[in-house]
């Protein structure tokens, strides 16, 4: 009869168990990797639409957080010429993206995503960040003036422009020395100074143009209301969020909440994204 000394037998059994355990661990790791890849593949693309007096860099902190959590992200370049034409530009980008999409709009960008998402079945959720949610027939300027609290008009620097065809218009900037107090009071001074220099102007006509459609009437919506906002009064933001039956988060922040509270903004976007699958 074949025999193994007790100590050697114990070592043999322990070694065999270790090998089996290693194979099991590899199988578990492979399964986890596959699950992670599957989860990532199912995640919608987050499309970020900046508003007036900002550019795509205003989303930098939010983008970093979303990327860490595995979300594909595109920060769109908003022409800031008018809701209808800007929505058409955004729709072109959405049409180019494969799979489901969550549209996120800051400030005037809310007007744009509200029009861009109409008739776009791949847009599964809308996220409004200190933003406009106009109903058909309403303009951004009208909604701002409907409630007290905005001090924006006293900080603007209008710049006339003209096109080759002879048509003219007016671009609106925020005066650089007033930018932080008006737009980004809770953003570090050096970061706000850079934002003031790199701000992109909006055509005055864009703020006066009336909405023709409102995707929030049919698409699930989330809204971040900024209670320290001097551009869009908190009362106006609450009115629009309640009317849209949006999932609402309030935060004591300036209009530049994506820069001052990127984690909070990213978390709300992720909640909207998770609700899509």
TrEMBL record:
Keywords: Hydrolase, Signal. Residues 46-268 form the AB hydrolase-1 domain. InterPro entries: AB_hydrolase_1, AB_hydrolase_fold, Sec-Metab_Biosynth_Hydrolase. One of its GO terms (molecular function) is hydrolase activity. It comes from the Bacteria. Residues 1-31 form the signal peptide. The keyword Acetylation does not apply. Gene3D superfamilies: alpha/beta hydrolase. This is Alpha/beta hydrolase.
